[in-house]
Write a structure and sequence with these properties.
Structural class: mainly alpha
Number of helices: 11
Mean pLDDT: 83
Distance between the termini: 90 Å
Radius of gyration: 31 Å
Number of strands: 0
Strand content: under 5%
Low-confidence stretches: 1-13, 307-316
Helix content: over 70%
Shape: flat
Largest sheet: none
Length: about 325
């Protein structure tokens, strides 16, 4: 008497269910691991890039502070001539309210002067790009603004404008104007001749060529000029505050005014702290221009770079 065959389907289903579940779990874990790898890789690359960027900077700062301390202690320099780095930090904390107020006042004057210089410089550059005669007639006067010593014309500007905040802004505009005009004019006139002929072939007007061809090409040049002017803006504001602060009856409280005040009382530690505050201000303005180039103006920056790449490939 033969035995009936076992029910292989039911038994195999019962036997394979744990295996299938384990396989699915393994696949889910593998998919999650695969999905998390790009994120972990990006995090690792960002951390490596951050350390690679700021590590050397902090290393140089620590090395300079160490050399500074050694020089002061070995040569026994008087504190009125060169205090220790720790004493500068203590002075910065002691005068933190004055430094912060001066940072805001000088920062506002520098930012206002930089923005005004960019706006005025772009308008002048557009005029220069539209007429060679205008460029030849007026460009030497723009160079004059760069070559004339700002210390020489600051008293004259005070005579005309007074010991006011606007005088500091005017001096800042004069100092910042030339790099913007020079860079933007170069960008507006550096358009490939083939593109100009193409626009002319399709009947584009002068305004259309300016808006759709020349200005996008000049954005990268504008960023270069603005970065140069961002450092000059702080210099111009502080130089102007040297003069404005002396005649304002202690009403003006910018970093330049604090420097002259502390220099008179031989507070060298506080004076050096003000120098570091002005340096941070310049770095902040530079970072703002860089941030604008990678966010608001990134579209035109990529357009210019891709166009340059296409031109390079075509030329090769």
């Amino acid at each position: 008497m033969t035995q009936p065959p076992p029910n292989t389907d039911a038994s195999s289903a019962n036997d394979e269910s744990p295996a299938v579940a384990a396989n699915k779990t393994h696949q889910d874990l593998a998919m999650r691991a695969t999905a998390s790898r790009p994120k972990e890789a990006r995090t690792r690359r960002s951390r490596t890039k951050l350390i690679g960027t700021w590590g050397p900077v902090l290393g140089v700062a620590c090395a300079m502070a160490a050399v500074w301390s050694i020089v002061v202690r070995v040569f026994g320099l008087p504190r009125a001539l060169l205090p220790l780095p720790s004493e500068v930090v203590e002075a910065a904390w002691a005068y933190r309210v004055e430094l912060w107020q001066g940072f805001l006042t000088t920062g506002l004057a520098s930012l206002a002067g930089l923005i005004a210089a960019i706006a005025i410089g772009c308008l002048i550059s557009v005029a220069f790009s539209q007429s060679r005669r205008i460029r030849l007639a007026f460009f030497p006067y723009v160079v004059f603004l760069q070559t004339v010593p700002i210390v020489a014309i600051a008293p004259l500007l005070i005579t005309w404008s007074g010991y006011e905040f606007r005088t500091v802004v005017i001096v800042t505009v004069i100092v910042c104007l030339f790099p913007v005009v020079n860079s933007v004019t170069a960008g507006l006139t550096a358009v490939d001749r083939a593109w100009v002929d193409l626009f002319r072939l399709y009947g584009a007007s002068r305004a259309q060529t300016l808006v759709k061809l020349q200005i996008p090409t000049a954005i990268e040049y504008l960023i270069i000029g603005s970065k140069t002017s961002s450092g000059l803006a702080v210099i111009g504001a502080i130089v102007a505050e040297f003069f404005v602060g002396n005649g304002s009856g202690n009403q003006y409280d910018g970093l330049g005014t604090l420097m002259t005040h502390w220099q008179g009382f031989v507070k060298t530690d506080a004076l050096i702290a003000a120098v570091f505050a002005s340096t941070l201000l310049g770095l902040g303005l530079f970072a703002m221009v860089q941030l604008a180039s990678v966010t608001v103006l990134s579209r035109w920056m990529r357009h210019t770079q891709s166009g340059a790449l296409r031109n390079d490939r075509t030329s090769h």
